[in-house]
Write a structure and sequence with these properties.
Four copies of one chain form a homotetramer. In chain A, 45% of the residues lie in helices and 14% in strands. Chain A has 487 residues and is α+β, with helices and mostly antiparallel strands. In chain A, helix 7 (281-317) runs parallel beside helix 10. The longest helix of chain A is centred in the middle third of the chain and has 37 residues, at 281-317.
Chain lengths: 487, 487, 487, 487
């Protein structure tokens, strides 16, 4: 069977060449390093879930390439049902890990995007990218690897295109094309879950024109490829990860974001899926963000579920009935179901692509992105509201102080309420984690900004059709045009 | 073919016994009376749409009884696709009529509800209701009739159940059971679209107990049945309907709500679908409101589309580019797509019932009800915001004044902007209609109140499961129970 | 004493030359005509309030011109306390009349604006406007007249300034300057409360430049001056005003908006307060809108108070305790107090002008305008939510049907709940009036649009100062300038 | 002069007996310990501001006891102007420190509360508390000390009153009353700014009855009094405080919250201001929270100003014009001015107390508490939205990695945009600090919860008066009472 066990996954990770740094230190083994092992544990749970009869329908599926059971994270999304299962899987993944498992999720969108994009390129331009991708995908499925996805370029001055930047490397680009492959230089930044990944799928940015064609490049590489240096970003409370105790409250999940520096990395030909076809760079991005913006609604719904549970736990630990909080708990679930439901709707109203892939509805996916950039902030606010002061920032002594031989008994005596001091402390730390810490995915800009989504909503809105509905109802015969632009 | 033409529909309506009143007058013919003809025109468009190749996939479908093409408004919803088509149909119906076509839509939900409910009753209690419903439905489909749905009882004192009301008629009830049928007394109030209906499908209320069993009754009757008196409710601007000109700006649509008084009405046995089975009254209501609360999201999305179109028209008529209003127009579409999308999601995540019907997802349907009771108010606000003062209440002289021989030229001179005075006046009137007048459906309480929906969200929220997610992540081993209720 | 009685006020109104039209008819006497008498009654209550010891501290004050007790509506606002009293007066005026009393309120802002503006003009340009205004104001106070304020021009094509309009009359302008006065032509539209006014205070628009200088004109005229024709705008339910019974539920208040057509009206010299000084037209508008945007918060708060009261009444009439609605009632008061409080704050943080007037804080006044264009819509929504279906649009038969000898008893039987049918019907009609009808002031655009307010918020925001706070805290030494505009 | 310099203040702090712990270590000197020196710097700036001519009108005032110039933080608030100055001071204090300076602000409210409460007690019960307070206050002003305020008890099981808790110490209480003073035991938790304080002013909880009278106690003690042990709470990123560089981006401000354990602390008689008068415990709390809930609006407005500035800085550093973000920047300022303005309004509409103090308006203060628990969350969301991905959680490598000799040049190369890498990094860190870190005050529950504020809004809402307004307008004569409670 193609599915690997958590142990097999971790063993494979351990064997990669160390090329990740944090706090000035080279991470020798991501499965044990305190700053990466939690995210590895989180991703391990995805492997366990695929093998768990309770969750296997979500976390695994049948490969359209081989007919074998494979991880859904490595499968082509071929129907509305598939895409809905993806939304549900992301919600469940949050339940299981308490955070983002971005090392697999962005990769899923990247490979699905390139499935469609390479198919179109080959058809229109006679290239052979689709076959290359199939080959790689068969290998990826066979080995059940974790593949992170990398889109975001440093970009430099946002008001200039890649080819006009003072430093040409501000967007990742091809510096040499050889018989057997290409050489790329540049960086991808804020890349989620790379610590837990075995390979990295790189996509270009959008909006490229002819002069930017060297920037139109997509490929996949092993994470430990020569020339790739990775620096982990810092989180508010990541110093706790090297400590003992409940201050880092979740051991089986953790978010990481990394900066990836490509210093003349050689990518073999059969791992290159777009190279110079600048008109398709935008398609690659669009085909990435549509399913992403739909399914992220499931992810933040899962986060909201856990927040509702944690808030209810704290209310009870405080000696209060959750009934007193019904109005607010309901609002949390309204928020959760809205982002989840809009993702489901975007899935259901998608359409089939000739390549066999299922394309998500762009209007609904983009509307969901707006909700995803708004509603979770409200849910966090309500979580802190219900939890009381102890759930707000910085209202609990450290684990060390909790256990101090001189005064730890005082901390514990006064933290006790309807539950033990330890339970209240753990709940408070989980709430901090969920609202200010390691459980907070970067929902605002993950998969692009809400502002970008709004532009696409405007493009997809069919305003002119709406105008015609109103004209017809009002029986207006005169033409009422958009005024001419001023000279 | 089962589908009727608009003309056939109107002819059938004309032949009903007059039993509707408004402003103290008996309405002789609803197809010509100024207070009812607009809503009849609106419903006529639904007949036209079913025959129009552009819309027939939405407005008609294949009968699961006969295999014939029938109106979707008379069809059993047998799949997620059917239910999604229902959401789309409601959105399109608003585009076509500029308002509610409640004479068919509530009936659709009523007959679908009783399809499921009678099936369950027959299976569990050995009754023969399902067969009776099938017979009636075959007749209804064959004649392509318009069937309104009637749920809301006057209720009297809301803090008392039906059987304890001072006046036993405050909820509609059975007063006699005979061999050949039953006799009912009471009223149904605020019933939408009755003016355009040929029959009325009556459902009971929910929450009934043994002493209330005479109140557990469902049936369908011709609108002109003996003993039924109907009084139309009044709208803010309905006096305009008897006038000439654009003050009643939409000729092809109009909302009506009626009070139906049943004074010992005899209902033949084969038109009775529930009678005394008080435990199923609640099911009948639930099975009604789930698809209703999903699909109403399509309806208010359609309303929002027309508002966006009207607002854009006014901006242009004022000489302004819609670009200046992009942020607000986008917000309108976010609102529209949210209620529409949540309905689609509730459809997609429904499940099959043994009777062959498709049951809508209750959580998502109820969340949508909350949005439907909130977002359209925001959309109306934005419409008035974009339109400027002329789109607010009462800022335009009457049609009579617009055309007055003494000063009408002044009104017209000063109303002219980038479009003609007449176009601006018509747009302003359509905006008034959409935000304050006849185009405003009763979304807040139609299909039940948002507050009721919130209770159901709480019931469906799975809070205890969320609590377990949080407990597991925080590694809390102690039980943290809900506190015991105070004595 | 300067204060007049309601009777004296109405008698004075009756003696004006008839020059107002509605529905094609000349209104002979505004105090008895069904379309104007309600608003006259509303304004009468302001006279009664000034003489009522409970309210006289709000509705009257001491003239800064004569030391006599005068109506606050005719007084110069000379302190924070005065301006706060103005906010409170507007809230109370709504309580007393159930609607807008715009016939005095806009006039108050107009005369206060010109007090400041003429003072500045005289000082800077050597004109003698301030003395003219003082003389007129002394006369107005002595006679305790009702003065409406008129700003809004028809404007024509919004993308063109007055002097470039195809029709030069699209903004009111001076067509002749004579020794003894000026002749003006044009219109003012959507002018509130003119029906109840004795004089009309006309202000120019803003943003005028040299070529527009004929449009920079301010003056005050008797409402019945030769050449002025007034056409009343139509409201959604104004046809009810000519009927009997509770369908027009409030007899002591009513909103009116009118179109005023000036066909070469001669204005005597001593009633002209700005004429050609185009640079001061903007000041006149700013000095008008600042106190207006502050105090309108009191007005909509009063509206919200009445909505909360009406919603609570309906809950009780339905047999329900208001306790069940606490969360929503609290939200209503949060909304009410926010618009009221922001007006108070804008008053408190104002500053003294050399003329003796008190200038409202522009930042807070404009922020309040944004709230005034948003929060009342939410309050209306909650009102309908609490009231249940009967409080929504069009869910109650007419007064005629309520009393019909054939079926009126049925309407009444079934409307009864915990209160009588008549009380429920009256409450429902008041709620309709407040949320869809005559009690809805044009808050969105009254005193200018929220969009205009937002521009002023941006101007007043002190963003660069905020940037410096952030720079200092982050210890950034480099300059981080706004990027140069693209060529 | 009573005002001390920052140096004098820090020197005085250094001389206190060490009794604070963090991370298991006794803090020897709060002015140099990495976990406390930033908050001490923040409070030092308040001393500097009082001596700075630009700010002295806000930060100092004239003592009503001595006529001398004293810190406003130690002055009795005697007028609306005083209270408005307090609101402005809090806004400015945030600008200066980038965070909460709770070590002085809660003390200000505590001493102002007890000024009023002791006055009333003495008058009604013949006690001599007011004189004791005056004496202490004179001493406090003479020495310009920083006094933190401590209200929150651990509370134990929230469903039980203090006297019924299993552990009687769950609320701080008197365990012995002696001739010369009292002995107290218990704890105060989540107390803000204690690290920077010289004394601690302790207030009781509210809602106490006769059996709880030992819990009704108010007093002030030196922070280093015998028997008092203090444990600092942990913040998300406080491990950074012991590091070099910009990861702890603000050197001149920092928030701390502490747990204070009173193990049989002796309080001399002249420092006790309430002891057993359980009916006044609630007054003490109310008199504390009213000015607190008003003025905290200024604090969060200051936070919002800095967020707007930081967001604008990042936009420019990214090479983008702030014009593209106008809509969102305006929304930030609407939020800021709303909490600030509502505090000003609560100040302006307060009233004089016989003791000479000025009482804040309770309705407006509580409405503001609701806004303070809501709007800043929206402002934070917008900050992250404008800033782009780099402003979200965990998207920037550490300072150590930024400067790493092996790959730091890569981090810097790719962080550069329209500004230097260092500036962008610093701005990103300040945004993290403001939205997820040390600059986030506990606004939700500081000064009590929004839920408690809502209860008070309901009590102050005047609903019955609103009901009467609606009744009068609708001409309803029947009584429509609240339904009797069910038996």
């Amino acid at each position: 069977m193609a599915l690997k066990t958590p142990e097999q996954y971790k063993q494979a990770l351990s064997q990669l060449r160390p090329n990740m740094y944090k706090f000035g230190e080279l991470i020798q083994d991501v499965t044990t390093n305190p700053h990466t092992r939690r995210t590895v544990e989180g991703h391990s749970q995805l492997y366990a879930a695929a093998l768990n009869p309770n969750y296997s329908d979500l976390f695994s599926t049948t490969s359209n390439l081989t007919g074998e059971t494979v991880s859904r994270y490595l499968a082509i999304n071929t129907s509305a049902e598939d895409m809905i299962a993806n939304c549900k899987m992301k919600r469940k993944a949050y339940h299981l890990t308490g955070t983002c498992t971005g090392g697999r999720c962005a990769g899923y969108n990247a490979l699905n995007s390139m499935w469609v994009t390479t198919y179109d390129m080959d058809n229109n331009m006679g290239t052979d990218y689709h076959g290359r991708l199939k080959d790689w995908l068969r290998y990826a499925q066979d080995n059940d690897i974790t593949v992170s996805g990398a889109l975001t370029d440093p970009k430099g001055n946002r008001s200039l295109p890649p080819s006009e930047q003072e430093d040409p490397d501000m967007n990742l680009h091809v510096v040499d094309v050889r018989e057997d492959g290409i050489v790329v230089r540049g960086a991808k930044v804020m890349i989620c879950g790379t610590a837990a990944a075995q390979e990295v799928f790189v996509l270009p940015g959008a909006g490229y024109k002819e002069p930017d064609k060297d920037y139109a490049v997509a490929f996949v590489v092993p994470k430990d490829i020569a020339g790739l240096t990775i620096v982990e970003a810092r989180h508010p409370s990541d110093a706790r990860e090297a400590e003992e105790g409940f201050d880092a409250p979740v051991g089986i999940g953790g978010i990481t974001q990394a900066y990836l520096f490509f210093e003349d990395v050689f990518v073999p030909r059969d791992r290159v899926f777009l190279c110079g076809e600048f008109k398709y760079a935008g398609n690659a991005v669009m085909n990435f963000i549509m399913p992403y913006r739909a399914a992220i609604g499931g992810c933040v719904a899962g986060q909201g579920d856990v927040m509702a549970g944690a808030a209810a736990l704290m209310a009870r630990a405080n000696g209060l009935s959750t009934k007193a909080f019904n109005e607010r708990l309901i609002q949390m679930y309204v928020n959760n179901e809205t982002t989840f439901g809009m993702g489901v709707a975007a899935s259901a109203l998608g359409k089939a692509h000739p390549s066999g892939a299922w394309l998500t509805n762009p209007m609904l996916a983009n509307v969901n992105k707006v909700h995803v950039g708004t509603l979770p902030y409200d849910t966090k606010r309500i979580t802190q509201d219900i939890a009381g002061g102890i759930g707000e920032t910085g209202c609990l002594p450290s684990y060390v102080d909790f256990n101090d031989p001189r005064y730890g008994h005082l901390v514990q005596k006064y933290l006790k309420a309807a539950s033990s001091a330890e339970s209240r402390a753990k709940i408070a730390r989980v709430i901090e984690w969920l609202t200010l810490g390691g459980g907070v995915p970067g929902c605002m800009h993950g998969g692009g900004s809400p502002e970008g989504a709004k532009l696409m909503i405007r493009l997809n809105s069919g305003l002119e059709e709406s105008v015609e509905f109103a004209r017809r109802l009002a029986e207006i015969e005169e033409d009422v045009p958009e005024p001419a632009a001023k000279k």
